[in-house]
Design brief:
There is one protein chain. With 57 residues, this protein is mostly beta strands. The protein has one domain: q5lls5 like domains (HSP40/DNAj peptide-binding domain). It contains no helices and five strands. The protein starts with 9 loop residues before the first strand and ends with a strand.
Length: 57
Amino acid sequence: MELIIEVPPITVEGRIVACEGDNDPALGHPIEFICLDLKEPAVCKYCGLRYIQEHHH
């Protein structure tokens, strides 16, 4: 998990993201729906990828 912190947070437009860990189902993990209402990046509990919501002004 130390190397995953080097991956920058993934910016998405919506409030909810579905993380599968990888585009290939054989390499991924169970789908996790993550709510992005927090000011800090939300973290996938399976793979550690971080997501933030793109803010429109």
